[in-house]
Write a structure and sequence with these properties.
Elements: E1 2-4, E2 29-34, E3 40-44, H1 54-69, E4 75-79, H2 99-117, E5 123-127, E6 131-132, H3 134-141, E7 144-148, E8 152-154, H4 166-173, H5 178-187, E9 191-192, H6 193-199, E10 204-206, H7 209-221, H8 228-247, H9 250-261, H10 264-282
Parallel strand pairs: 3-4, 4-5, 5-7, 6-8, 7-10
Antiparallel strand pairs: 1-2, 2-3, 8-9
This protein binds ligand LSE3YFK7.
Length: about 280
């Protein structure tokens, strides 16, 4: 039985909420912990497409802190949308940006990556919708991915004329072969669910969100008889090189992001991309 709500994360207005004071629908991230298993289902809840702006990233980051502080037994990351897991970074954070906010935005994305990629507790993404770019990154930070049929997933940055940071690339390389990762990253491939399964970008296919959650739960159950400490130390040792690389370069990474995104050519590209998205949704 799910009991809500472990923590009321940042609201859509960007204000930190208190434990049970407002309805789950108001939260950017909804956390429910199963009494029996102790697993937390963390639901991204920023309609319409869970694009990752500063407030949503902050809410995710706070949620990950809570799970770690509460010694979570496992986390399932999913979305409240019927067709989108996450549309990736909110392009409005990069289009005509204010530099201070942009730096905070990127630094918070780095925080989320550190906390999710390096989490001591086991993590699964139940990908119940499209998952391009930053959405794909969130799922890649998890240890296991279950994806519903007929959606797309991938790091499509090159199609936007931008270069995925090295830690995005490392997360993809951790899930699939180096060769497939190179092809996918250079082409900016958005895989269908079945294609993603074939290259190992996802681990299982599900017929519905419920099926995805059930399969995610079954994955977490596999660790029931494994020492949590031995498990987390093994995971963190395997991922430590990627983590240290970003830790050593955090400031340069932020500076490079600001430099790259503020280039007139990139701004023009983002403008055209936004226009195309708006025109599509207006149809
Ligand atoms: C160290 C670093 C060095 C150098 C690095 C330099 C740069 C790296 C920087 C950036 C890395 C970026 C990674 C990213 O994540 S960029 C975002 C990429 N995302 C996408 O390409 C996805 C775009 N969206 C879609 O394809 C679709 O929306 C969809 C498939 C997810 C869902 O389709 P739907 O048909 O269900 O919904 P839509 O009608 O398309 O959209 C509804 C609504 O939402 C707006 N929207 C969609 N996606 C975004 C987004 N990512 N950001 C902001 N807004 C988005 C869309 O415009 C519609 O708005 P309106 O209703 O028209 O207002």
């Amino acid at each position: 039985m799910l009991r809500s709500v472990l923590r009321a994360s940042t609201t859509r207005l960007g204000v930190t909420g208190s434990r049970f004071c407002s309805s789950a629908a108001d939260k950017l991230v909804i956390t429910e912990v199963d009494d029996k298993t102790g697993y937390a289902t963390v639901t991204l809840n920023r309609p319409p497409v869970n694009s990752l702006n500063l407030e949503l990233l902050t809410a995710i980051s706070e949620t990950l802190d809570d799970l770690q502080n509460n010694k979570s037994r496992g986390m399932i990351l999913t979305s409240s949308s019927k067709s989108v897991f996450s549309a990736g970074l909110d392009i409005m954070e990069m289009y005509k940006p204010k530099v201070d906010r942009m730096k905070e935005f990127w630094s918070t994305l780095q925080d989320v990556w550190f906390k999710l990629y390096g989490s001591p507790f086991p993590t699964v993404a139940a990908i119940n919708g499209h998952s391009p770019a930053g959405g794909c990154l969130l799922s890649l930070c998890c240890e296991y991915r279950v994806m519903c049929q007929n959606y797309t997933i991938g790091l499509n940055e090159t199609r936007l004329g931008i270069v995925a940071p090295t830690w995005f690339m490392a997360s993809m390389r951790n899930a699939m072969s180096r060769r497939d990762a190179e092809m996918a990253l250079t082409l900016g491939t958005l895989f269908t669910t079945d294609e993603a399964l074939k290259v190992g970008l996802v681990d299982e296919v599900a017929t519905s969100k419920e099926d995805a959650i059930a399969k995610a739960t079954a994955f977490l159950d596999k660790f029931k008889k494994i020492s949590p400490q031995a498990r987390s130390m093994t995971k963190q040792a395997l991922r430590s090189k990627d983590i240290m690389e970003l830790e050593d370069n955090r400031t340069q990474d932020i500076d490079l992001f600001v430099y790259a995104v503020t280039q007139p050519k990139v701004q023009k590209g983002l403008e055209m991309y936004l226009e195309a998205l708006k025109a599509k949704s207006a149809k």
